């Protein structure tokens, strides 16, 4: 709160531009808004303050009309002056705390305002609202809560055929019709860098790319798809859909090659035939369907390196994510429940540290020392061996975000 007030005061006093150039991340956003000039972010910061506390009304408002999720957002999203980062997650069952920790990690490190799209089972909505509204003092995010839904034509069929929550993410381009681009993440993701960083990859897409994911494995000898899959999959080892960046405008426009008909099909038309054809052969649900789609349309996928989706698989059998060792771990993905059991204590320690901390600067700084001690206890495990990389990454992210000279804050 105080930080933002100071920012506004500063930008009135001496102009926001010099400030912007001080942060590399904001410099990126300036580049993206080329032509628009430096007035844009300034205007956004101001309207951001003005819109404080609105998250509450909005969350409540959009949770109501179950049949038309997202309708209440349509106009406000269209009129956004600054490019917002849209982050989506699907939370079911016991995933409340995990999802909130993921959202918190996004808020702690990110620079641009965030728009959360939370798809959750109805019984979780009140808890989400309670916590997210209590964070509204941050004024750096908005959220919308949606029920788990499917496009009406064959909603019943999808519900019958598949676990509803598991396939929800496939329908995001069809449900969030007014949103151009979206970062989808699983609930067991933790951001160790600003969300802005991965968002900036959208600008690197060439003209045929519509989505971005990381490989499922770096090492084919331990890969799952190349050893066991009974369906086509992307590339050498398949892709992991736990972190998926989408240009949904392009996904909605594209006609996809497929092995069901000789004509190309749109996103909304390909999913059901695909599921019908492969339902007996798929193991990992919607991730398998995505692998089949991008097997047939490889020119449409942007593959980002493993450090954007760093899983226990990358360290359990020895370190096999080279980029993470060289440049850091940007997004942690604690799949297989490792935040909640004792199999990978290094992952668990990072999860708990972020879960426990609160948003005050001092608190975020003081997270590092105990975490380092905790991680040192894990060096006997494979993933614990690289604990210094975790600490280095977190230290850097906290410095980038919080340790700016006082006059810049
Ligand atoms: C947040 O929501 C409020 C109310 O709908 C809106 O006025 C504001 O512009 C939104 N801000 C962003 C960045 O989405
Ligand atoms: C499913 O797997 C079986 C056994 O490997 C294979 O014979 C069959 O062709 C597969 N089905 C499809 C649709 O690929
Ligand atoms: C997504 O693709 C559309 C159509 O090519 C383009 O206009 C839009 O700028 C892209 N979005 C982003 C964030 O790059
Ligand atoms: C975009 O990149 C993909 C992956 O490298 C490639 O297959 C595709 O041909 C590229 N498209 C264009 C238009 O260059
Ligand atoms: C987080 O809090 C729990 C319970 O309050 C505590 O047992 C645990 O040691 C804390 N962990 C870290 C890493 O701060």
From TrEMBL:
<keyword id="KW-0472">Membrane</keyword>
<dbReference type="InterPro" id="IPR002495">
    <property type="entry name" value="Glyco_trans_8"/>
</dbReference>
<dbReference type="GO" id="GO:0140563">
    <property type="term" value="F:UDP-D-xylose:beta-D-glucoside alpha-1,3-D-xylosyltransferase activity"/>
</dbReference>
<keyword id="KW-0328">Glycosyltransferase</keyword>
<keyword id="KW-0735">Signal-anchor</keyword>
<dbReference type="GO" id="GO:0016020">
    <property type="term" value="C:membrane"/>
</dbReference>
<dbReference type="InterPro" id="IPR029044">
    <property type="entry name" value="Nucleotide-diphossugar_trans"/>
</dbReference>
<keyword id="KW-0325">Glycoprotein</keyword>
<dbReference type="Pfam" id="PF01501">
    <property type="entry name" value="Glyco_transf_8"/>
</dbReference>
<dbReference type="InterPro" id="IPR051993">
    <property type="entry name" value="Glycosyltransferase_8"/>
</dbReference>
<comment type="similarity">
    <text>Belongs to the glycosyltransferase 8 family.</text>
</comment>
<keyword id="KW-0808">Transferase</keyword>
<keyword id="KW-0812">Transmembrane</keyword>
<dbReference type="GO" id="GO:0016266">
    <property type="term" value="P:protein O-linked glycosylation via N-acetyl-galactosamine"/>
</dbReference>
<protein>
    <recommendedName>
        <fullName>Glucoside xylosyltransferase 1</fullName>
        <ecNumber>2.4.2.42</ecNumber>
    </recommendedName>
</protein>
<comment type="function">
    <text>Glycosyltransferase which elongates the O-linked glucose attached to EGF-like repeats in the extracellular domain of Notch proteins by catalyzing the addition of xylose.</text>
</comment>
<keyword id="KW-1133">Transmembrane helix</keyword>
